[in-house]
Write a structure and sequence with these properties.
The chain is globular, with a radius of gyration of 20 Å. It has a single domain, classed as Alpha-Beta Barrel (TIM Barrel). By secondary structure, the chain is of the alpha/beta class. It has an 8-stranded parallel beta barrel, surrounded by 7 helices. A two-stranded antiparallel sheet has the order 1-2. It starts with a helix and ends in a 19-residue tail after the last helix. The longest helix has 21 residues, at 142-162. It is 35% helix and 13% strand.
């Protein structure tokens, strides 16, 4: 079968039936209500994605505990049974529009701020995050770790009760599970640190707890294949982790890379969106507007540049992980054209392609691809969306801020 046709053929991840191999990757939308319930606007966005023929929709990350809530506004939560009815309505509307929906579960660990969560930040080890430098996180105790394990599995129970088709454990981008997996952020000497198996233990225990509570419910995982931190995650170890995930009963692995402290390593682009950074980032809130134009001149030398390449930067890593496992492999990262998506699933490199930014600017991009109306996303990789999410709900800014938002 020609690979372009294969992209649009039905496929499956465990019991999840997808109408094609193009998935909307988990993307924080900033559209939750104050209690973490999905807003009407979020429901409308997911329905647009479903009607636009996304093979599946993975939600923005949903917090499993208040202490692990994001510093970004409008984060979804799944820490309470009271949230189930609202999610049930959301899921039903997405299903009616024709797509399965998977809830991404997360704990932000040290990548948040106590000023926002009202709780002290926590981490595998008491090391300050290079980006969220305000708080020294508290090292998690044995009982703390077990509480987090139960919180993840309880959230999975709520997701199933809400009608979600599966859940995805967010083990990438420097959030708590990634903090445990990476030797850069996990300096523990007990059974939760040290060897790869020990650093993976919390994920294994979460998988075991979910399986005990919900049985054969699809559980996906998103992991970093590598990052740019000294002594951080490297592909050879990520392959081992993918194998461990399969043995633990994982339904599919999504391959990503990078942590927030690296700057634009997760969502790469040719230019740092300085206007957005100065207008929205919490570190510049106290800077009077009159001085902000000066920042545009003095900041660039101190900011990490986006690594190259900007396109398909996780494809080789996905290929090596796929060679080591038999469960489906999903690849994300700089895949913005039909040609790139086709290449990603050809040559036994990946089974599914997930995209984030292309769906922000065009929720119906999959349908446009299938109908032959276009073959390239309109996204320019300006990454204003990734920065402005600190202040406003998810949208495409097309590399330009309105006058009221400019520094």
């Amino acid at each position: 079968m020609p690979e372009t046709l294969r992209i649009f053929e039905p496929a499956a991840i465990g019991s999840i039936a997808l109408r094609n191999r193009l998935i909307r990757s988990g993307t924080h939308e900033g559209m939750a209500e104050a209690d973490g319930a999905p807003s009407e606007a979020l429901g409308e966005l997911y329905v647009k994605l479903a009607k636009g023929e996304a093979g599946a929709v993975i939600t923005g990350y949903a917090g499993v505990l208040q202490q692990g809530k994001s510093s970004l506004p409008g984060m979804l939560m799944m820490h309470s049974d009271a949230l189930v009815p609202a999610y049930r309505q959301l899921v039903q509307s997405v299903h009616r529009a024709g797509a399965p929906i998977v809830m991404q579960l997360a704990h932000c660990g040290r990548q948040t701020r106590s000023a926002v969560t009202g709780k002290r930040t926590v981490a595998p080890s008491a090391l300050k995050d290079p980006f969220f430098t305000e708080d020294l996180p508290q090292e998690l105790s044995e009982s703390d770790i077990h509480q987090i394990i139960e919180a993840f599995s309880d959230a999975a129970v709520r997701a199933r009760a809400s009608g979600f088709d599966g859940v995805q454990l967010h083990g990438s981008h420097g959030y708590l599970l990634a903090q445990f997996l990476s030797p850069f952020s996990n300096r523990r000497s007990d059974r939760w640190g040290g060897s790869t198996a020990n650093r993976f233990r919390i994920v294994a225990e979460i998988m075991k707890s979910i399986r005990r509570k919900v049985g054969d419910f699809p559980v996906l995982a998103k992991i970093n294949a590598y990052d740019g931190m000294k002594g951080g995650m490297r592909l050879e170890e990520a392959v081992q982790i993918a194998v461990m995930l399969e043995k633990a009963g994982c339904s599919a692995v999504e391959v990503s890379s990078g942590v927030i402290a690296e700057g634009l390593a997760i969502m790469r682009g040719p230019k740092m969106p300085l206007d957005a950074l100065i207008a929205a980032n919490f570190k510049f809130e106290a800077v009077p507007p009159v001085f902000r134009p000066v920042l545009k001149r003095v900041l660039p030398p101190f900011l990490p540049s986006s690594p190259k390449p900007y396109r398909c930067y996780n494809l080789q890593a996905a290929r090596e992980i796929k060679a080591a496992v038999s469960i489906p492999v999903i690849v994300v990262g700089g895949i913005h054209t039909l040609e790139d998506a086709t290449a990603a699933i050809s040559g036994n490199r990946a089974d599914f392609v997930s995209m984030s930014r292309p769906f922000i600017i065009e929720p119906s991009i999959v349908r446009k691809f299938r109908e032959g109306k276009q073959t390239i996303s309109k996204c320019t990789m300006c990454n204003y969306c990734a920065i402005m999410i600190e202040k406003e709900p998810l949208r495409c800014w097309s590399g330009r801020l309105p006058e009221r938002s400019r520094a």
